[in-house]
Design brief:
Strand content: 5-15%
Number of strands: 9
Strand order of the largest sheet: 1-2-6
Distance between the termini: 62 Å
Helix content: 25-40%
Structural class: alpha/beta
Radius of gyration: 21 Å
Shape: globular
Largest sheet: 3 strands, parallel
């Protein structure tokens, strides 16, 4: 593990270590979260403020020596389940053993987004809407959590400068509990506004392809999308799907408490700034995210047949 080498190299001259971990360290399949496999259980977890830093962590379950693993491309038998998160847990332990509680800052981000995000996960949405035409989207009430990379970076620097130790979920984008999270409806509404502004700018400049027509968003139900075999997280980026016993653990991804980090000064820029950065400077979609256009439009048509708009 790189953490072994870095702590060994720095321990004699550096007295404080900030390790960037991940919310993937949590053992969301633990029996402690069994109640979260039901709507009432998820609602109770949200009402309690979400998953906190003292939640159960993953244990490495592979047969390989985790301290010699140089790549995560090994077999499932060698690496075990959830190896990414489990190896991060071991890294956290290495740092804490080397620097002690007072000299260790562990930051666990969730979805990091905004300008220059190479993943394309969040930037898919403003870029897709800005192309015009009809965008298929998850249910409008499906919640999200993401943090702007600039907010995360600035806060991390301040924490290091003040030598604040501890373990913190660095997730967003709420400051008043999980009820303050944005939904896909919120995000796509902002994307539509940004698309209108961008089309106006292109029209004034005399550039851009406006042949796709005005942007429109159609939110499909979770049940419809599941029935149609629409894959979570990839076909519709960042959508965790309808709640089932099989994917209950994924529902916890956007139910992380950031209370401790907010108490230590973590702040969030307005959502439209993050989405504008993602639109202007986010990674271009190269097939990793989203549906083929023909399939997307077929599902839009099927959605309208299944749930026709109300007649006024």
């Amino acid at each position: 593990l790189a953490a072994l080498k870095s702590t060994a190299a720095l321990q004699a001259t550096v007295g404080f270590y900030c390790f960037i971990s991940t919310v993937s360290v949590y053992d969301v399949g633990h029996e402690r979260f069994s109640a979260a496999s039901t709507p009432d259980g998820l609602a109770a977890l949200s009402a309690a403020g979400g998953l906190r830093e003292d939640a159960p962590l993953l244990q490495f379950s592979g047969k390989a020596d985790p301290y010699t693993i140089a790549s995560q491309r090994g077999s499932d038998e060698e690496l075990g389940e959830n190896s990414y998160g489990a190896l991060k847990v071991l890294c956290e332990e290495i740092v804490k053993d080397a620097y002690g509680p007072a000299g260790t800052l562990i930051i666990r981000p969730g979805i990091v987004a905004g300008a220059f995000d190479p993943s394309g996960r969040l930037s898919y949405w403003p870029k897709r809407v800005s192309r015009g035409g009809t965008t298929l989207a998850p249910p409008a009430d499906a919640a999200l959590q993401f943090i702007d990379a600039v907010d995360l970076g600035e806060w991390t620097v301040r924490m290091c400068e003040s030598r604040t130790s501890g373990v913190f979920n660095a997730v967003g984008t709420q400051t008043k509990g999980l009820a303050d999270r944005p939904t896909f409806g919120d995000v796509l509404a902002t994307c539509l506004t940004l698309a209108d502004v961008e089309q106006t700018r292109q029209a004034i400049a005399g550039s851009g392809d406006l042949s796709a027509g005005p942007a429109e968003v159609v939110h499909a139900s979770a049940e419809f999308l599941s029935e149609q075999g629409v894959a979570t997280f990839t076909d519709l980026p960042l959508w965790t799907g309808a709640l089932t016993a099989e994917n209950a653990s994924s529902q916890l991804l956007f139910r992380m408490s950031n209370e401790a980090a907010v108490h230590e000064g973590l702040t969030f820029r307005p959502r439209d700034q993050t989405l504008l950065g993602a639109l202007q400077h986010g990674a271009e979609n190269k097939g990793a995210w989203g549906l083929p256009e023909s399939m997307e439009q077929a599902l839009v048509a099927a959605t309208r047949v299944a749930s026709p708009p109300a007649k006024l």
